[in-house]
C-alpha cells in the first residue's frame, strides 16, 4: 500500500513540474474578475442594471455591484470611498463641487406628480390638472389641505389630501421641489424611504399625492402606467385646464417625447449623472464610462429614458479624454 502511494505521489509531482524544474503554472480559462461598485439614485438604478447586463456580454471580467438608496446616499458613499461610482439625479451644489465631486452626464428622465388610481376625483383632476402655485400650496405652505379646497367643491368635512414625500436625501425630492422654487427640506408630508416605498404608499391611499421617478410610474416594457398609480397632469400655462399640448401622459413613449421636446417642465425633468471623487483613474471605470456614452446609448430610450443631445454627449466624452 505504501509503495503504491509513493508511485502515485511521484507521478503527480512529475505533472506539476515543468521542464526547467520549476512548478508548472496552473492554466485556467476563467478571466480575472474586476469589481466596480455603484450606489445612489433610484432614478438611474434600472438603466444601470441594463447597462451592466449588456456590458458583461463583451466584458465578462467586470463584476458590477449596484445598490439603490437615493442620490444622497450615492454622494455620501462616493465621497467616503465606500463605492467607486455614485448614481446622481440632480445638479450639484457649489459646496458639493468644492469637495471635488466629478460628474458625467448620461441621459434625462423626470419626476412626476402622482396620485392613487382610486382617488374619487380622478377624472376631474385629469381634466383641470394642478398649477405650479397649487403644488406649492399642497406640499409647502399647506394652505390647500383637502381635495375639496383644491377642486373648489367646498364640501364640509372634505377628504384631506394625504401628502407623501421622501424621507431619504433624494434627487427626486430636490427636483420636484425645484419645480416651484423650493428645496427638499421645504416639502411637508409623510416621509417615505425610497421610490418603491413612495409609489406603494400612494397606490394604497385613495386620497394621497406624491411624486415619483418616471420608471416608478410607467412600465418600460409595456409603456403603460403601473397598476394603482396615476399621474397628476401639470397645468403648465396655469389656465385651469389641461390643454391638448399639456396632455402627454397616456403612455411612456408619449411622455418621454414631451420631456425631449421640452413640453414637460425642467425641473422636474433633469439630467442623470455618474459621480466620482475626482476624475476616475481606473481604466476599467473609464472604459465603462466611454461605452455608456457610445454603444450604451442604444439602450437609453429602450429602457425608458431620454438620450442627451449629441453635442452634450460629445462634451462628456471630452471630459473623459482630458
Summarize the structure.
With 322 residues, this protein is an alpha/beta fold.
Write the layout of secondary structure elements.
Elements (H helix, E strand, L loop, with lengths): L1 H14 L18 E7 L4 H12 L5 E7 L2 H10 L4 E4 L5 H5 L2 E16 L5 H7 L3 H8 L7 H5 L10 E5 L4 H9 L10 E3 L2 H10 L3 E6 L15 E3 L20 H10 L7 E9 L5 H10 L17 H12 L1
Parallel strand pairs: 1-2, 1-3, 5-6, 5-7
Antiparallel strand pairs: 3-9, 4-7, 4-8, 4-9
What attributes does this structure have?
about 325 residues; alpha/beta; D-Maltodextrin-Binding Protein, domain 2; 2 domains; nine-stranded mixed beta sheet; 12 helices; elongated
Outline the structure in words.
This protein has twelve helices and nine strands. Strands 1, 2, 3, 4, 5, 6, 7, 8 and 9 form a nine-stranded mixed sheet that branches. Helix content is 35%, strand content 19%. The termini are far apart. It has helices at residues 2-15, 45-56, 71-80, 94-98, 122-128, 132-139, 147-151, 171-179, 195-204, 252-261, 283-292, 310-321; strands spanning 34-40, 62-68, 85-88, 101-116, 162-166, 190-192, 208-213, 229-231, 269-277. The chain is elongated. It has 322 residues and is of the alpha/beta class. The longest helix has 14 residues, at 2-15.
Number of domains: 2
CATH class of the largest domain: Alpha Beta
Structural class: alpha/beta
Topology pattern, helix = H, strand = E: HEHEHEHEHHHEHEHEEHEHH
What integer value in Å does the Rg equal?
A: 26 Å
Poorly predicted segments: 1-28
Characterize the overall form.
elongated
Overall pLDDT metric: 90
CATH architecture of the largest domain: 3-Layer(aba) Sandwich
Largest sheet: 9 strands, mixed
> What share of residues are in beta strands?
15-25%
- The percent range for helix content is 25-40%
Amino acid at each position: 500500500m505504501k509503495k503504491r502511494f509513493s508511485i502515485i505521489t511521484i507521478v503527480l509531482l512529475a505533472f506539476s513540474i515543468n521542464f526547467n524544474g520549476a512548478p508548472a503554472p496552473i492554466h485556467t480559462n476563467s478571466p480575472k474578475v474586476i469589481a466596480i461598485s455603484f450606489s445612489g439614485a433610484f432614478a438611474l438604478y434600472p438603466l444601470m442594471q441594463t447597462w451592466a447586463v449588456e456590458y458583461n456580454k463583451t466584458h465578462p471580467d467586470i463584476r458590477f455591484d449596484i445598490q439603490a438608496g437615493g442620490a444622497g446616499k450615492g454622494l455620501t458613499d462616493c465621497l467616503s470611498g465606500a463605492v467607486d461610482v455614485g448614481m446622481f439625479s440632480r445638479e450639484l451644489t457649489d459646496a458639493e463641487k468644492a469637495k471635488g465631486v466629478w460628474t458625467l452626464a448620461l441621459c434625462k428622465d423626470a419626476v412626476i406628480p402622482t396620485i392613487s388610481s382610486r382617488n374619487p376625483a380622478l377624472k376631474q383632476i385629469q381634466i383641470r390638472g394642478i398649477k405650479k402655485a397649487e403644488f406649492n400650496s399642497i406640499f409647502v405652505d399647506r394652505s390647500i389641505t383637502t381635495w375639496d379646497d383644491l377642486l373648489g367643491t367646498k364640501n364640509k368635512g372634505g377628504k384631506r389630501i394625504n401628502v407623501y414625500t421622501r424621507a431619504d436625501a433624494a434627487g427626486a425630492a430636490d427636483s420636484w421641489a425645484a419645480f416651484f422654487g423650493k428645496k427638499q427640506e421645504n416639502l411637508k408630508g409623510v416621509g417615505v424611504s425610497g421610490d418603491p416605498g413612495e409609489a406603494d404608499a400612494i397606490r394604497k391611499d385613495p386620497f394621497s399625492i406624491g411624486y415619483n421617478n418616471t420608471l416608478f410610474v410607467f412600465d418600460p416594457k409595456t409603456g403603460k402606467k403601473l397598476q394603482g398609480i396615476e399621474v397628476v397632469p401639470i397645468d403648465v400655462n396655469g389656465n385651469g385646464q389641461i390643454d391638448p399640448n399639456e396632455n402627454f401622459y397616456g403612455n411612456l413613449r408619449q411622455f418621454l417625447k414631451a420631456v425631449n421636446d421640452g413640453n414637460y417642465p425642467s425641473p422636474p425633468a433633469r439630467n442623470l449623472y455618474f459621480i466620482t471623487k475626482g476624475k476616475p483613474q481606473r481604466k476599467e471605470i473609464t472604459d465603462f464610462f466611454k461605452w455608456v456614452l457610445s454603444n450604451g446609448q442604444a439602450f437609453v430610450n429602450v429602457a425608458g429614458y431620454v438620450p442627451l443631445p449629441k453635442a452634450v454627449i460629445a462634451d462628456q466624452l471630452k471630459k473623459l479624454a482630458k
